[in-house]
Design goal:
globular, 10 helices, single chain, binds copper (II) ion, mainly alpha, two-stranded antiparallel ribbon
């Protein structure tokens, strides 16, 4: 199970890394009340064309399940999946590698075994968290239950796509990232580090190496093959939601900016935020420069978004 080297090359490019990273970081730290960004930073980001339509969390760091941010999450990643499938297929790569898990791998899976927890000196809470989410019990008592809920047509019925997206993102999605996350390493030397990994704000060139594919960071996670298995699983839930609601809720399938999408009363937003551009467009040198400017504005922000934030 692997990504074609052309696919990896595309995903590891600075432009793609910046796009995925900034998209997550901005929407998740946008809320001023949360303290993630100052008004000055926000104004600059707006001028650069990267203001998100909706922040994903409220002032208390609770995920917004009533606003449309959850739709952005599903839509942006659907654009990513489409692009990756295209590259993989054009190069004769294995298509199963870019399709979602049929079900979340149990602790018995040998192909997707869970990397061991590591310990970070002085980070008691983080260490405990890692041990818990990587345990067999966590799979049986939490993940499997989430999976049952999110594939359950009676649960999906009548819910907005935004609510489904936000709930999946903040629960099983984030925890799958961290459950299959391995001990961080230095991409240049391969040397393992007992740390919390790439710093939230660090986008120095050393992280552009294709070996930088740590699942715990938004700049690197999408270069990791497991990303496509878990995001494919998430994406398939969108289709479950459609099946659960198509007969009762006037849902229509539409093509929106290159991907299959939906229109109807359970869809809150007719347009979706994917960052300063659609994912998959060949970014021009100006776009890359702009993204570097956005990161500069963000650099030193008070707060970063991590998959392990609870
Ligand atoms: Cu992502």
């Amino acid at each position: 199970m692997s990504l074609h080297e052309k696919t990896t090359e595309f995903l590891a490019s600075r432009a793609v890394r910046l796009h995925h990273h900034l998209w997550h970081q901005i929407r998740d730290t946008w809320n001023w009340a949360r303290g993630g960004m100052t008004e000055v930073q926000k104004k600059k980001i707006e001028e650069l064309g990267w203001k998100p339509d909706y922040p994903s969390q409220d002032a208390n760091r609770r995920w917004d399940t009533t606003g449309p941010a959850g739709e952005d999450f599903l839509f942006m990643h659907r654009q990513m999946i489409k692009k990756v499938k295209e590259i993989q297929s054009e190069n004769g790569g294995n298509m199963t590698s870019v399709s979602g898990w049929a079900s979340v791998p149990s602790p018995n899976s040998s192909e997707f075994s869970v990397p061991e927890a590591w310990e970070v000196y002085g980070a008691e809470g983080f260490n405990r968290f890692l041990k818990v989410i990587k345990s067999d019990d966590y799979y049986y008592m939490v993940m499997r239950e989430w999976q049952r809920t999110y594939t359950d047509k009676s649960w999906l019925k009548g819910k907005t796509l935004a609510e489904v997206g936000a709930k999946i993102e903040s629960t099983i999605h984030n925890m799958m990232h961290m459950r299959w996350c391995d001990r961080p390493w230095d991409p240049r030397t391969g040397k393992r580090e007992e740390s919390i990994g790439q710093d939230g704000n660090d986008i120095s060139k050393k992280w552009d190496d294709p070996r930088a594919n740590w699942l715990g960071h938004t700049y690197s996670s999408h270069v990791n093959p497991v990303f496509w298995k878990l995001h494919g699983w998430v994406d398939d839930r969108t289709e479950d939601w459609y099946e659960a609601n198509k007969d009762s809720s006037n849902l229509e399938k539409v093509n929106l900016r290159g991907v299959d999408w939906y229109k109807g009363e359970l869809v809150l937003n007719s347009d979706l935020w994917t960052g300063g551009m659609d994912f998959g467009h060949e970014p021009s040198p100006q776009m890359i420069k702009k993204m570097e400017e956005v990161s500069e504005v963000l650099f030193g922000k008070n707060d970063s978004y991590h998959f392990y934030d609870l």
